[in-house]
Amino acid sequence: MTMPNPIVEWPSINSRSRRLFVTLLVGFGMSLVGFPAAEGADHLVVEGAWTRATPPGAKTAAGYLVLRNTGNSDDRLVRIESPVAETIEVHSMTMDGGIMRMRRLDALLTIPAGGEVRLDPGGLHLMMMGLKAPFRQGERIGLDLVFERAGRIAVEMPVVRVGTMEPPR
Amino acid sequence: MIWLRRIRYVLWSAVGIAGFVAIAVMLGWWTVDGPGARATRNAAPASIAEIGGSFTMTDHRGRTVTDRDIRGKPTMMFFGFTSCPDVCPTTLSDMAGWLEELGPAADGLNVVFVSVDPARDTVEQMAAYLSLFDPRILGLTGTPAQLEAMARNYRFYYRRVPLDGGGYTMDHTAMVYLLNQDGRFASTIDYHEDRQTALPKLRRLLGIAPAG
Q1: Interface test with A, best of B77, B81, B130, B132 (most A CBs within 10 A)
Q2: Domains in chain A: how many in total?
């Protein structure tokens, strides 16, 4: 080896910076290929999904569920897909001074490592817009949740009576 | 003396900037909160005692309904829209449940669902939507002007909020209003107020003794 390595030999980079650079490079590489496969999909558990029957003509419905992350890294819900609605997003609902407001979440929903996120009536919900057909009590609505790390998870939501406030047992 | 001139320039530009900021703040105040503010239909109830008055809307069967039609009986009134996935169907279902618990006494009560989304909530849409709930619930919709006039008198809030992917949702007052038989404000039932307090309020409104 007679040719000097340009990075190693660059005089303005001291050895600590060089080590940091190499560490970052390796970390970046691992983040591209290593981690998503390492943990697999089973760190994310979707539980207690449900939705309500919709009145005739209603074009929207709200879905509720619990997302639990048993892994060591945060995960994020990237998108929700289902043939039953044109668009499904995570919305928040707030009640302030008797005024109800619903908003799409600005950022992707993060499920913290070792934590859970609950979508319950009166708070966060899956906002299903542009329903192709009304939801009828007793049906099951299928949708796919796509997570940044856990990938795609299929979920079935039983349809319960309109006005229900608690998840079905 | 170039440096003196420079200081003068700097000072005068500071004065200019300060003046601009002051004028901008004044203008902002004038148009948002001050005398130049647009007359807003979104005013929160200044005095809930003033809630009530005239309105002209169309019910879900296509008939014209005015405030005179709901006089003579107390009224339970709720505001919402049919593209509302949570609060509206839940409250309509709650109201239907209260009617059931009131039994025959419920016939002495007007139950009104006012749409704050006249663009989408046509008479046909209201009729279809309400078919899932108690048939005693009267759906009201109207022209944007009719709705605005009613909101002014009944002091409820609504605002159209665009959604990113196209379409829109509505912010709106989600309390149930209770009006006496003269059409004047009596009380409210808040979202998810306990049955334990909602029913006594309705019985008081109807002038009937508590059950049991």
Answers
A1: B132
A2: 2
Instruction: Establish if B43 belongs to a structural domain.
Output: no
Residue A113, helix vs strand vs coil: coil
Domain range enclosing B75: 48-206
Q: Tell me if A58 and B83 make a contact (CB, 8 A cut-off).
A: yes
Contact (CB<8Å) A95/B94: no
- Shortest Cα distance, chain B CAs vs residue A99, angstroms: 4
Is A55 within 8 Å of B169 when comparing Cβ atoms? no
Block mean pLDDT (10 aa), chain B, length 212: 79 82 75 56 58 96 97 96 94 94 95 97 97 96 97 96 89 95 93 83 88 53
Beta strand segments in B60-146, E? 64-66, 75-80, 110-115, 137-141
- B126/B105 same-domain check: yes
User: Which residue in A103, A121, A86 sits closest to B168, CA to CA?
Assistant: A103
Please give the ipTM for the structure prediction: 0.71
Answer whether B188 sits within 8 Å of A162, measured CB to CB.
no
| Chain A residues within 8 A of B93 when measuring between CB atoms | 161-163
Q: What tokens were used for A152?
A: 């795609």
Are both A59 and A93 inside the same structural domain? yes
Looking at the fold, whether A35 and A53 belong to one and the same domain comes out as: no
Is residue A87 a contact partner of residue A146, using CB atoms and an 8 Å limit? no
Q: Which residue of A has its CA nearest to B82?
A: A58
Q: Are residues A19 and A79 in the same domain?
A: no
**Pick from B196, B192, B177, B156: nearest CA to B74:** B177
Question: Which residue in A has a C-alpha nearest to residue B170's C-alpha?
Answer: A101
Residue in B closest to A137 by C-alpha: B132
Same domain, A35 and A82: no
Residue A168 belongs to a domain: no
Nearest to A164 by CA among A129, A121, A100: A121
Same domain, yes or no, for A28 and A93?
no
Give yes or no for A85 touching B (CB within 8 A).
no
